[in-house]
Amino acid sequence: MEATTYASVTWDSIEVGMELPTTSREVTAALVVGGAIAATHDYENVHHDHVAAKAAGAEDVFMNILTTNGLVGKYLTDWAGPESTLKKIALKLAVPNYPNDTLVFSGHVKNKYEDNNEWLVEIEFVGKNNLGYHALGAGVLALPRG
């Protein structure tokens, strides 16, 4: 994703319906393969072997769900800032994420609430590439008051 970092947001400054900034990440073969093998220890050959991916009916190697989950977490915490805590991600995958594409994340605040003395926000997000929606879901973050 872009190297942009955001200042910490506070629970009091958040409004339901508020849009998060969009961010984009170039999807490279190194990201797909490195995310699968090095980051998540997923040795399924469709994530690192072009020939095996083609034999399975895919256009190329494609990103695994754990790498997508990590990119979602980065999107949410880059927006919320270093004082936030990521509490939950619920993620659904749709179209594959192939090399030589761009993954664009956007989101909005669906809800904000207090639970057990934590100040929480629920963010609905989508990640799109040239084929359509790659990732859809929601995340919950704890934010500082202020």
Offer a few descriptive terms.
146 residues, alpha+beta, 5-stranded antiparallel β-sheet, elongated
Q: Return residue spans where pLDDT drops below 50 for at least 5 consecutive residues.
A: none
Tally the beta strands. Answer: 5
Measured as a percent range, the helix fraction is 10-25%
Number of helical elements: 3
| Computed Rg | 16 Å
* Order of strands across the main sheet: 1-3-4-5-2
Largest sheet: 5 strands, antiparallel
Give the class from helix and strand content and strand pairing: alpha+beta
Quaternary form: single chain
**SSE string, helix = H, strand = E?**
EHHHEEEE
Written overview of the protein:
With about 150 residues, the protein is α+β, with helices and mostly antiparallel strands. Helix content is about 25%, strand content about 40%. The protein has a five-stranded antiparallel sheet. β4 and β5 form a beta hairpin. The protein is elongated, with a radius of gyration of 16 Å. The mean pLDDT is about 95.
Summarize, please.
The chain is α+β, with helices and mostly antiparallel strands. It has helices spanning 29-39, 50-55, 65-80, and strands spanning 19-27, 85-93, 101-115, 118-129, 132-143. The two termini are 28 Å apart.
What's the helix and strand layout?
Blueprint: E1 19-27, H1 29-39, H2 50-55, H3 65-80, E2 85-93, E3 101-115, E4 118-129, E5 132-143
Antiparallel strand pairs: 1-3, 2-5, 3-4, 4-5
